[in-house]
């Protein structure tokens, strides 16, 4: 019997090949009717035999195009209309909704097949794309999203490409960036002095391979910016890259051609495999199995970040040698943003790279590789950028006005909100240098333009000295401002992701966040809802002698912790050539010694006290080394840390923790065992406090978030203990554990506080 269904699909379903997908599906299943884009998404009028309709709807649910995000499918039965064909109806005039731009994704299987098919007209053509793959966000200049508003505008389509573009049955129907060797962009190989070496793709790829094998560093323009590549299996090029990049410790990411190659030297769990092969192609941090890459790739660490190729050029390069393993690190100087403009790349990277592979299509929005790790078969973000940004985070209730939240000053990502979506920006890094600040400002401008957002309320952290706070003041131009506490934002970000409305227990652990008592927080036990929070507990305060300086020279924190615990400074391993008496005087007089309680800072101090790390070259280095030391053993000593509780607060004694660490040191316990005992002490004490808060409040939902949870031992240990005790544990899954996710929390808290403006 013939029936007629009206099917409405909401979510990101426009500009991602949804209508041609429906069109083809209808032809396959002998469905008559039409499909069109409208305000809510895509509407389908479908008539056919019951069985065929069932198959049709099942396929819509299960096989929708890879770049689409389906939020909801509504189906309603209608009178049979006796349609005699299926067609794509012209879009209905719609009220203005948010424009979605898909993230950049890796080349798809079909394109890859053509790319390696000598008979195909796009054989070895590095800009091959289709409706389901390739660059998007990185090439969009303005809305609406069509070719004229992308950096493909300079490349008018040839007749063949045009034909494909207009054919609803073609894989490239309405593929805005489609191109071929006749009409599209080209690749060029240059020496660092800008001498052109070649513009022939076959020659370029062979030469690049040869340079890399000879130990040279090659800058390769990718999707969201330049990579710096070198042979990862040899010490010399890796050390040269470290030296030139001024990056002594921070690990380099790798790329190799196949999952089989990765398996030779790194462990891969099923979830890790799935993510490695996903269309987003993030870097995944994996445990080393066999040392076949240079130890300078990730000095001190037993984990290595790696990704599989995602651009056609990368595929071509790795097809030359199945054993090739390259360092593929962001093309920048340490702590600067990734280079993505060609002139700038030559300027900023010619001290680092010997050769440049560039192409003549502009990157409009830069985007670093995303970074993830997996614990208990659950993936977490360290950096959410290429492949994920600007996919929206959908919320249930609409925002009454457009909002902007500037994020934090470290690992920055900002957010905008309108309708029922929040869009987080790409990774913008640490906003210390003028160049990063400039890039941040232009990224904000770009976002507001391409998503057509006109914020009426501006939200930032409450830190008085943050760049983002000051910039938000300026952007607001007198419009309402809301300031949000850092750790509250961490917790609410997770509430938003998991659609939690009621109060939760929030454990927000990180290095630095400005507290409402004007001290530096970072070991926070909160009871929080979307609007406000109560601070229930924290580790006791200690001083950071010299403030910011102590964060770099972590031995100062070690000294301060000894001082606080009333222990002699002889316990500090790094005493030579240090202004110890001056620091002690500073502590004595509380001069330039801000109070802090961040877990990250405690890790720093203990790392110094155990002789593991004296000063750091990159954020979290001391803590990472301490974790790595703890991973060397399974033996530990139980440390019970004193916890003091009164009506208002529960305080875990940092002094007592330090005393007990030093006791173990006195007993000549091996350092790895002390390091592990320290981790477990933090877990145990934190668990106890969470437990007490549950007893006092009756709340059973607990959220863990903050940069300190990038520590595997801490995250896994606390998570498991809480679950064992019957807590419902929620973790950030769509946003990073670190400050890259706080803009989401800021936006939601801002929304809840709008009525107070
Ligand atoms: Zn494709
Ligand atoms: Zn063409």
From TrEMBL:
Domain of life, source organism: Bacteria
Keyword annotations of the record: Hydrolase, Ligase, Metal-binding, Transferase, Zinc, Zinc-finger
Pfam families according to UniProt: Acylphosphatase, HypF_C, HypF_C_2, Sua5_yciO_yrdC, zf-HYPF
Catalytic activity: C-terminal L-cysteinyl-[HypE protein] + carbamoyl phosphate + ATP + H2O = C-terminal S-carboxamide-L-cysteinyl-[HypE protein] + AMP + phosphate + diphosphate + H(+); an acyl phosphate + H2O = a carboxylate + phosphate + H(+)
Domain YrdC-like residues, every copy: 202-387
Active site, UniProt feature: 19, 37
Ranges in a coiled coil: none
Domain (Acylphosphatase-like): residue spans on this chain: 4-90
Single annotated GO MF: carboxyl- or carbamoyltransferase activity
GO biological process: protein maturation
UniProt xrefs under Gene3D superfamilies: 3.30.110.120, 3.30.420.360, 3.30.420.40, 3.90.870.50
Top EC class for this record: ligase
Pathway the protein contributes to: Protein modification; [NiFe] hydrogenase maturation
E.C. designation(s): 6.2.-.-
NCBIfam families in the cross-refs: hypF
Protein family (similarity comment): Belongs to the carbamoyltransferase HypF family.
PANTHER family named in the record: CARBAMOYLTRANSFERASE (PTHR42959), CARBAMOYLTRANSFERASE HYPF (PTHR42959:SF1)
Protein name: Carbamoyltransferase
Species the sequence originates in: Thermodesulfobacterium geofontis
Species classification: Bacteria, Pseudomonadati, Thermodesulfobacteriota, Thermodesulfobacteria, Thermodesulfobacteriales
């Amino acid at each position: 019997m013939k029936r007629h269904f009206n099917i409405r699909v909401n979510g990101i379903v426009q500009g991602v090949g949804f209508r041609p997908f429906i069109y083809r599906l209808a032809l396959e299943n002998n469905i008559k009717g039409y499909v069109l884009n409208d305000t809510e998404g895509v509407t389908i009028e479908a008539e056919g035999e019951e069985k065929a309709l069932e198959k049709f709807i099942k396929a819509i649910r299960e096989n929708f195009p890879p770049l689409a995000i389906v939020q909801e499918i509504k189906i309603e039965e209608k009178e049979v209309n006796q349609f005699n064909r299926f067609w794509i109806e012209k879009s209905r005039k719609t009220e203005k909704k948010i424009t979605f731009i898909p993230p950049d994704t890796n080349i798809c299987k079909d394109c890859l097949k053509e790319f390696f098919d000598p008979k195909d007209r796009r054989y070895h053509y590095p800009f091959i794309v289709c409706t389901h793959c390739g660059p998007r966000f990185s090439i969009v200049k303005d809305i609406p999203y069509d070719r004229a508003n992308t950096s493909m505008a300079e490349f008018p389509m040839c007749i063949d490409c045009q034909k494909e573009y207009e054919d609803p049955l073609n894989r490239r129907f309405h593929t805005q960036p489609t191109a071929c060797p006749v009409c599209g962009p080209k690749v060029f190989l240059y020496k660092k002095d800008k001498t052109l070496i070649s513009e022939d793709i076959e020659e370029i790829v062979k030469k690049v391979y040869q340079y890399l094998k000879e130990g040279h560093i090659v800058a390769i323009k990718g999707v969201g910016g330049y990579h710096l590549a070198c042979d990862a299996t040899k010490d010399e090029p890796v050390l040269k890259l470290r030296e030139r990049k001024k990056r002594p410790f921070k690990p380099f990411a790798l790329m190799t051609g196949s999952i089989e190659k990765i398996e030779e030297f790194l462990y891969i769990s099923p979830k890790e495999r799935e993510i490695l092969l996903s269309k987003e192609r993030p870097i995944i941090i994996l445990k080393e199995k066999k040392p076949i890459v240079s130890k300078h790739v990730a000095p001190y660490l037993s984990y290595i970040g790696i990704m599989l190729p995602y651009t056609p050029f990368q595929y071509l390069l790795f097809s030359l040698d199945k054993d090739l393993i390259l360092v593929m690190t962001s093309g920048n100087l340490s702590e600067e943003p990734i280079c993505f403009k060609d002139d700038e790349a030559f300027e900023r990277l010619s001290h680092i790279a010997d050769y440049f592979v560039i192409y003549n299509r502009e990157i409009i929005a830069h985007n670093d590789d995303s970074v993830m790790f997996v614990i208990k078969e659950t993936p977490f973000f360290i950096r959410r950028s290429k492949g994920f940004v600007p996919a929206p985070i959908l919320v249930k209730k609409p925002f009454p006005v457009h909002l902007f939240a500037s994020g934090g000053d470290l690992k920055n990502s900002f957010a905008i909100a309108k309708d029922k979506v929040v869009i987080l920006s790409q990774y913008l890094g640490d906003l210390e240098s003028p160049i990063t600040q400039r890039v941040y400002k232009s990224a904000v401008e770009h976002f507001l333009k391409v998503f057509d957002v006109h914020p009426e309320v501006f939200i930032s952290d409450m830190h008085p000295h943050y760049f983002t706070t000051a910039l938000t003041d300026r952007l607001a131009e007198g419009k309402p401002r809301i300031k949000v506490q850092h750790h509250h934002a961490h917790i609410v970000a997770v509430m938003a992701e998991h659609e939690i409305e009621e109060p939760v227990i929030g454990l927000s652990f990180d290095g630095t966040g400005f507290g409402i008592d004007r001290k530096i927080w970072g070991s926070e036990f909160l009871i929080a809802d979307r609007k406000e929070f109560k601070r229930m507990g924290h580790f006791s305060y200690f001083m950071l002698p010299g403030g910011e300086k102590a964060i770099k020279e972590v031995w100062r924190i070690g000294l301060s912790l000894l001082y606080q615990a009333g222990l002699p400074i002889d316990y500090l391993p790094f005493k030579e050539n240090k202004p110890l008496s001056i620091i002690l005087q500073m502590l004595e007089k509380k001069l330039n010694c801000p109070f802090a309680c961040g877990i990250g800072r405690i890790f720093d101090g203990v790392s110094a006290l155990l002789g593991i790390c004296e000063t750091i070259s990159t954020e979290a280095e001391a803590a990472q080394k301490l974790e790595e030391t703890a991973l060397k053993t399974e033996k530990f000593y139980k440390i019970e840390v004193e916890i003091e509780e009164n009506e208002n607060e529960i305080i875990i004694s940092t002094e007592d923790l330090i005393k007990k660490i030093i006791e173990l040191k006195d007993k000549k316990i091996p350092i790895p065992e002390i390091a592990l005992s320290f981790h477990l002490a933090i877990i145990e004490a934190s668990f106890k406090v969470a437990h007490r808060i549950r007893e006092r409040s009756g709340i059973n939902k607990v959220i863990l978030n903050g940069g300190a949870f990038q520590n595997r031992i801490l995250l896994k240990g606390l998570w498991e203990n809480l679950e064992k005790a019957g807590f419902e544990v929620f973790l950030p899954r769509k946003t990073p554990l670190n400050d890259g996710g706080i803009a989401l929390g800021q936006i939601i808290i801002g929304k809840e506080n709008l009525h107070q403006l």
